[in-house]
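Forum: Protein Structure Q&A
Topic: Joint prediction for protein chains with partners

I've read a bunch of threads here and the consensus seems to be that you should model interacting components together rather than docking separate models afterwards. I'd like to see that in practice. Below is the full input, 714 residues plus whatever partners are listed. Could one of the regulars post the assembled result?
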Amino acid sequence: MKRRDLLKTLCAAGGASVAATALRAEEPGAVVGERDRLGVLVDTTSCLGCRMCEYACADANGLPTPEADVELTATRQTSPDQWSVVCRFETDRGPVSVKRQCLHCLQPACASACLTKAMLKTPEGPVIWRESKCMGCRYCMVSCPFDVPKFEYDSAVPKIQKCQLCFDKVQEGKEPACVANCPARCLTFGRRSELIDLAWSRVYGEPDRYVRHVYGEHEVGGTSWLYLSAVPFDQLGFRTDLGTTGYPVLTKEFLYAVPLVLTLVPPFLLALSRATRARDEGEEEYDDGGGA
Amino acid sequence: MTEGVATTGRPAVGAELRRFVRFMLAELKPKGKILTPFNLITGAIMLVSAVVLTIRFTKGLGAVTNLSQDYPWGLWIGFDVVTGVAFAGGAYVLTFMVYILRMEKYHPIVRVTVLNGFLAYVFYAGALLLDLGRPWNVINPVIGNSFGVSSVLFLVAWHFLLYMLAEFVEFSPAVAEWLGWRRIRRYLGAMTLGAVIFGITLSLLHQSGLGALYLMAKAKIHPLWYSEFIPILFVVSSIFAGLSMVIFEGSITHKVFAHRASRRLHATHDDIVVGLAKICTGVMFVYLVLQLLVFVHGQRGEYLSTGWGAWYLLEIVGFVAVPAVLYAYACQVRHMTAIKVAAVLALVGIVLNRLNVSVIAFKWYAAVRYVPTWMEVVVTLGVISAELWVFRWVVNRMPVLDVIPGLSDRPDGSLEPVRSAA
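Posted by a regular:
Agreed with the consensus. Here's the joint model:
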């Protein structure tokens, strides 16, 4: 073994500990709903299914105008051309219309999955996508529990498309386009803590009208969009098996192990390679680089 | 490069450069017959791949792949990258055995294994670039204008990059010997241990990291394949995946490049293979126990009676337990063919496992399942073909199979003429 090798190992260990500090600072678990984000409460009991939100969204974000003559089904999906869609579900209490878009999680899987920080949880609340950073790996799509990010497969310069919660508008203190254009007032824009109070006051006020569940209050660590419903949420196509843990927590343990492995394994291997040497002398007994 | 020759004085540099260029030009030429069946088939595959890739880069991924909003990752990630990297695991295991534990018995095959590992990373991890929607931004997480350090993929990307460097350093003495650069050869040789230590550490992390990528797909992967232990299962299985690949590749390389192999390798090849098979046996039983623990821990019993359960049992019993037992038996009786069969079965098991996690059991509930297009398959074959061509070119020129440990120069004159096409 040479002093050089020892130095190299020490350098690697040093680099690893720097990486460890950086990791800690980035750990998204530290922001579990502490800051009061902006969000939207959707009261599905008053949604008319008029699709004004779809048109307002397309208009505000420069997307193609949605087709007028479509049947509202349970399987409608957002797409690269349409960030917000209204679905209709047959439930125990008749047909219910539900607007779907990005839920803007408090601890977004997509943002923690993004290796270029193209997906970003803004302090205001919206999760936005930044074109100049994205390399198109689509790991955000793999990670998102709600399958929200959509990719332009038919473009040579593809983008990730999803609701940005009208980031420009909300920065100026305005409402998102869909909320401002909802004729039934079934969308309410505001601070998330106030929306939760509002949601539960409605549930307690009219216990026969609502189920005792505000979707998004705890799901995957909480989302900026919250939903009220008259029927259990699984009847409205919501996944109710996602748990209440923020998705970035799923990779936390692995990421914490990385600096440990990087600092502990090299010295161990170095020691092992010294211990297995036949004779203890300055130079190698054979030219190790035999390269092989 | 010039450092090694500069000592002889300035005028010599020009002459040395001319000699170097002449040497390179001669070496770049193919050696042997060009129109062989292998060349024709792989050549055609690569040509078609080139056409497919041209379409892919002008019209978008949707024009050639069956990727969808439901299946953002398909064959190119699931097989080329996730499976290919597991197969390349032999390099870190063998460098550990030879350089750290000093098992001299395995020295003759380290160089070819490292070469295989290096090329696998260059081509299979390189195939990642074909899959990126916006590959021109691939430098973003490298040059530091946007470090997404909370991403497992960030870690995997960096480790790929660094590990390729480490493997190149490990292999570089062969290049220096080929070029006759003695002094540089000595410097490069001295760097080997450092590169090996760094390389093993990186490998442990990115082999497990490839599994950790799927931790956030918790709600999408069938419970028989999803568990928080995916990273550990991936790293443990990469050991026998890599070694089985060494056995499998070795059995082919040994035949095709028999004339290039040193006498020592010829004499000890069977011993080496039996040794590797023994290690595979041990690791595969460890892996089976881990899978059993995960099975019990995850309370997966209820799924066994479903079709997915049968598919799971096929993978675990048919392509892990069976090859493990076959390996054990074949080692006892020194049956070389049985060892090769076990290696192939184990490799199939790894393909099944990696594809199950990344493609087959991914979105197992989806109405429309992903099946790769013929174009995705051809590009995958094209990547493998290109790798084989480069591998053959290197093995036919550099001291890879005919290396003699302890000798830092290529043995003069003792090389037999090259017969195979390259």
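The CA atoms of residues 80 and 161 of chain A lie 5 Å apart.
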